[in-house]
Specification:
This protein is α/β, with parallel strands linked by helices. The chain contains 20 helices and 20 strands.
């Protein structure tokens, strides 16, 4: 006789009340999770993955409600349960790891105290034992020096460390079911592997069941027993992980598989059959003045941050503090070049110095020492606070990681795109500005009718296109791309990557592509630099570095990449 599932969702329909009427976010779905089983729910933004998990733990916002169907957990009807029952179930029986670990933690409360709160709420500890058990929870998620970290605030910890604290919170009461909602988004590959290995190990030790919500098909293949594919609120396919990746049945599953970067693929391979990179006619490329030598040359670049003086506050007041500690070197004497029309990949783990380097190159941060030669001129000697007035400002632009946070919510798409032109461009007059904006929109494949919309009225992919259009508005020579596709679904990522490559070919720009996704770097970049602890450990052509790496650290990064079955 087959054992009943731990979680059984039947004919579940979730509705949201909006100004334009009722919208069904989840439509008559069936999902089950057995005891000790790990099930992935995959799909793009808006597919209903997270809404399904919120319905399970009953944390839908006021506009949402379960309109039909049932959710049974260990024989308990969760749809009909009272709020008092749900408060007891949440955390003790069903726990959740949320996508953004910093947002999930209280910024003004020590992390140890937050774990204590959960233990005390569910009577898993007393006031006398809560501290000891909280430190034990931190030890189990392998946080170094847990006694010290107990007294740390979230802002004092790295992203990976915050994610471990959130896992400790979720597992503190040893629940039966863990729901992990995009638990590795934004983490570098080695931290992602460490976090997922930790989740799997701890849940298996305790015989727990897990739901992994993700748009990373490689992650689902590597860590899950079964995969549920959702599209537009419906379950379109369910099968074992190995089977669904080797023999996908539904067209949408095949589309997701095709858009997932893998070894041996080209950028165009990621696109649906017959789809162009940008969907627009070719535009005339502006003439680029030829120059001698590389476009960008970095020599012995260093960035240091001071450390606080040692000793107590009273000792420092008395002038008895020890000498200040050696400054922290975030970037330690690196050097490289970017040729004209080249894409250079900058990769490494969080804290390796790649973002600090990109901020110095974009002149948002002053270097401690070293030279940044752009077209033969030392732009590193120009203070960051004065660089906006420099003629070089318009020639170096940046596309930021988060397409939502990088746009002013009060600006329409048109105003956002035109912002650098209004500040530094020569175009004047409403008609000329509108014509240039429409030209840029066509270049990046953004429908002209969306130019009058605000960021909250655009999808993630559309906002990414606005950010790219803004960056190329002044015809720059160099564009620094800081994780421009990290927050995008795989199919949207495929289109944006092809768009970036297409624009580079048409407009003759050079790129510095900062990323932790080595499969994406392999597809887009000509050369690659690998950074660790502020230093360059390896650099060369993308084929050499990512195909036959020499540095042990590069090999470690490549080994950590989760892969779907071939």
């Amino acid at each position: 006789m087959t054992a009943p599932p731990l979680l059984d969702i039947r004919n579940l329909t979730v509705e949201f009340a909006t100004r334009r009427g009722t919208v069904q976010a989840v439509k008559a779905i069936d999902i089950s999770v057995g005891k000790g089983e790990t099930v992935a729910i995959v799909g793009e933004s808006g597919s209903g993955k997270s809404v399904t998990s919120y319905a399970v733990v009953r944390i839908l916002d006021r506009a949402g409600r379960v309109a039909d169907g049932s959710i049974s957990f260990s024989g308990i009807d969760l749809v009909g349960a009272s709020e008092a029952q749900m408060r007891d179930i949440r955390g003790r029986e069903i726990s959740m790891i949320f996508q953004n670990p910093r947002a999930a933690l209280n910024p003004i409360r020590k992390v140890g105290r937050q774990i204590e709160d959960v233990l005390l709420q569910h009577v898993q500890a007393t006031r006398a034992t809560a501290r000891e058990k909280a430190i034990e929870a931190l030890e189990k998620v392998r946080i170094a020096r847990p006694q010290e970290r107990y007294d740390a605030y979230p802002f004092e910890l790295s992203g990976g460390m915050c994610q471990r604290v959130v896992i400790a919170l979720a597992l503190a009461c040893q629940p039966q079911l863990l729901i992990a909602d995009e638990p590795t988004t934004g983490l570098d590959v080695t931290t992602q592997k460490a976090v997922m290995d930790l989740i799997v190990e701890l849940t298996r030790e305790r015989g727990m069941s897990t739901i992994l919500i993700t748009h990373d098909l490689g992650l689902a293949a590597a860590y899950c027993d079964r995969v549920v594919v959702m599209e537009k609120g419906r379950v379109v396919e369910t099968a074992g992980a190995a089977e669904i990746f080797r023999h996908p049945q539904h067209p949408y599953t095949r589309k997701l598989m095709k858009a997932t970067p893998r070894v041996g693929m080209s950028l165009h391979d990621l696109l649906p059959e017959g789809a162009p990179a940008s969907g627009t006619a070719a535009a005339s490329a502006p003439a680029r003045a030829p120059g001698a030598g590389p476009l960008l040359l970095v020599e012995n670049l260093v960035k240091e941050y001071p450390r606080p003086a040692q000793g107590s506050f009273l000792a420092r007041l008395a002038g008895k503090a020890e000498k200040p500690a050696e400054p922290f070197r975030a970037v330690d004497g690196i050097g490289f070049s970017v040729e004209r029309g080249e894409t250079l990949g900058l990769v490494g783990e969080s804290g390796c110095g790649k973002s600090t380097t990109s901020m110095m190159l974009n002149r948002l941060l002053d270097p401690t020492s070293g030279r940044i030669l752009f077209d033969g001129e030392d732009i590193g000697a120009i203070p960051a606070r004065r660089f906006a007035a420099s003629p070089f400002r318009r020639r170096i632009q940046m596309v930021f990681q988060d397409p939502t946070d990088s746009l002013n919510p009060r600006f329409t798409a048109e105003r956002a795109i035109l912002d650098p032109i209004l500040r530094m461009g020569a175009i004047r007059g409403g008609a000329a500005l509108r014509a240039r904006c429409e030209e840029l929109a066509q270049l990046v494949g953004l429908p002209v009718e969306l130019l009058d919309r605000f960021p909250h009225q655009l999808s993630g992919g559309q906002k990414a296109r606005v950010g790219i259009a803004r960056a190329i508005a002044l015809d720059p020579d160099l564009v620094i791309l800081d994780e421009p596709t990290a927050a995008l679904d795989v199919s949207v990522q495929a289109v944006v990557l092809n768009l970036l490559d297409d624009l580079k070919q048409r407009l003759g720009m050079s790129y510095i592509f900062v990323s932790h996704d080595l499969n994406v770097v392999r597809l887009l970049c000509d050369r690659v630099i690998v950074m660790r602890s502020g230093q360059i450990v390896e650099q060369g052509s993308a084929e050499e570095v990512l195909g036959a790496p020499k540095a042990p650290y590069t090999k470690e990064l490549l080994t950590a990449i989760p892969h779907p079955p071939a």
